[in-house]
Amino acid sequence: MAGDSALWLTEVIRRVVDQRRIADLATIIGTSAGAEELAGRKLLVEGDGTSWGSLGAENLDARVRDDAIAQIRERRSRVVSYPLPRGLEDDATIDVFHEVIEPQPQLLVIGAGHIAVPLARFGKLVGFEVVVLDDREKYANRDRFPDADQVLAADFGGTLRDYPINESSYVVIITRAHTYDEEALRLILHKPCPYIGMIGSRRRVQTVMRTLVAEGYQRERIAVIHAPIGLDIGAETPEEIALAIIAEVVAVRRGGTAQPLSSIGRPIAF
Amino acid sequence: MPASGDTGEILQEARRRVAAGEQVAIATIVQTRGSTPREIGAKMLVFEDGLFMGTVGGGCGEADVLQATLEAMERGTPGLMHVDLTADEAEESGDVCGGIMDVFIEPLGPAPAR
């Protein structure tokens, strides 16, 4: 413990948090009698298999690393029991907590109009890194988005073309005109982001989707776009619409059904 | 899935404190059964003065975890704590959570003065 403590913290922050990479931080959380000093030892494994640290036995490290790669792929944290390395009692085991640490999700808000302002605040509240993009500096500025992590006043296409969008990006398209929505979608559709939402009436959404299909974009990919964006909460004001959007984003992130809890499961007898 | 937004912030704060010579401890939920207020991976970072950052569940069991964490900081070794939030256990405090969780507690930083 003692002097080592800061080391693994530094490594996890450097390799995982700062670089927005996913990794498995495997920690010994329990052992059968005789190996208690191993508790707390860590092995940090990244998606490509590179590892840092050691659990105290080479063949244990190798087994944990192999499992870690699978846990990362499944994005699931769990405790796994490993038989103790050769030389110790047959029925002894080491319990390892595979903790899959994912990058902070990013809420990429394309369009900095009325809805974007409360949406950016909601995004920060629920733990997202918030980035706002609009080509009008009158709208995309720090005064309107004091809490956002990044505010970009720049051309939509030019910016999105090179912008890193990956498995931790949640993209909300709420520009002022469907042509900008289309421009943004063309550049984002092929990216592996878990959420793309687009605002608009059914007619506007239909226009955009038809345009993209006519240009050759895959119907299946277009079909998973959340459009019209947001949950149906009867939203009317920009704040309410932003709430409906962030609720939908969180539901996708957390794997929720977006149904009322009161209507899921058995009725409560009273 | 546990989110690095919270985890990242907690780890960064832990590093800051340890680098400044302070002792801290992290309590992490490693297993759950039934309904628990927080998920696997949820963390609480406890400071020398007993204040803390993050949560493993608010009213349900958190006070016990905090106590166990302070004790772990005193003895300087990690431990695994079993927290039972089912009705029988929680009746006295009035909490109704219903689940069970295992929390791994690890002290970090300078060794405690003995």
What does this protein look like?
Chain A has a 5-stranded antiparallel beta sheet, with helices on both faces. In chain A, strands 8-7-6-9-10 form a 5-stranded parallel beta sheet, sandwiched between helices. In chain A, helix 5 links the parallel strand 9 (169-173) and strand 10. Chain A has helices at residues 5-17, 58-74, 116-125, 156-162, 178-188, 202-214, 219-223, 238-254; strands at 23-31, 42-46, 51-53, 78-83, 93-101, 106-110, 129-134, 150-153, 169-173, 195-198. Helices cover 34% and strands 21% of the residues of chain A. Chain A has 2 domains: 2-9 and 20-101, no CATH class; 106-254, Rossmann fold. The longest helix of chain A has 17 residues, at 58-74. Chain A is elongated. With 270 residues, chain A is an alpha/beta fold. In chain B, 30% of the residues lie in helices and 29% in strands. Chain B has helices spanning 4-19, 62-75, 87-90; strands at residues 24-33, 43-47, 52-54, 79-84, 100-108. A 5-stranded antiparallel beta sheet of chain B has the order 3-2-1-5-4, sandwiched between helices. Chain B starts with a helix and ends in a 6-residue tail after the last strand. The mean pLDDT of chain B is 85. Chains A and B meet through helix 1, strand 1 and strand 5 of A and helix 1, strand 1 and strand 5 of B.
Classified by CATH, the class of the largest domain in chain A is Alpha Beta
* Strand arrangement across the biggest beta sheet of chain B: 3-2-1-5-4
Q: Identify the CATH homologous superfamily of the largest domain in chain A.
A: NAD(P)-binding Rossmann-like Domain
Supply Rg of chain A.
Answer: 23 Å
- The largest beta-sheet of chain A arranges its strands as 3-2-1-5-4
Number of strands of chain B: 5
